[in-house]
Amino acid sequence: MRIGDAAAAAGTTARALRFYEERGVLPPPPRTASGQRVYGPDDVARARAVRELLALGLTVEDLRGVGDRIDVLIENPQRRCGCPDSGVPGSGVADRRLAALNAEIDRLTRLRDRLAQRVGDRSSSSPSAPAAALSAEPSRP
């Protein structure tokens, strides 16, 4: 099937398939004599798996390092993404991404708490000028 059909079957765009190929997440498909890409069911399954992993918070760079292991997940979808064997290339990708996500959640939680303290804490008699300005309703013409 051609790239447009493969993209539709995988729930993505032709542009995304080209991007994944450029980044080494998808192997280059065979081409016709005129240079058009030809995709098969395995390519579509791999593109779907890539999209699912990206939706879980992994990055294209994360997947690039474990591209050969994506096929294992396709064959056995219930298989865990993590690999305790530190000798395997790309092992720990999911653990590192989880740690990065947890750090970002912590950072955003602290930021939210600081903003809530400055804007939302109405118990003090005189909020700071910036906090008062931020909490005021915008004027309408």
Q: What would CATH call the architecture?
A: Orthogonal Bundle
SSE arrangement, N to C: HHHHHHH
**According to CATH, what is the topology?**
Multidrug-efflux Transporter Regulator, Chain: A, Domain 2
Mean pLDDT across residues: 81
Span of the ends, CA to CA: 56 Å
Number of helices: 7
- Helix proportion range: 55-70%
Shape descriptor reads: elongated
Strand content: under 5%
Brief synopsis:
This protein has 141 residues and is mainly alpha-helical. Helix content is 57%, strand content 0%.
What does this structure look like?
- The protein has 141 residues and is mainly alpha-helical.
- It has one domain (3-121): Multidrug-efflux Transporter Regulator, Chain: A, Domain 2.
- The protein is 57% helix and 0% strand.
- The protein contains 7 helices and no strands.
- It has helices at residues 3-10, 14-22, 41-55, 60-64, 67-75, 93-120, 129-135.
- Helix 1 (3-10) packs across helix 3 (41-55) and helix 3 crosses helix 5.
- The longest helix is centred in the C-terminal third of the chain and has 28 residues, at 93-120.
- Mean pLDDT is 81; it is low at 84-89.
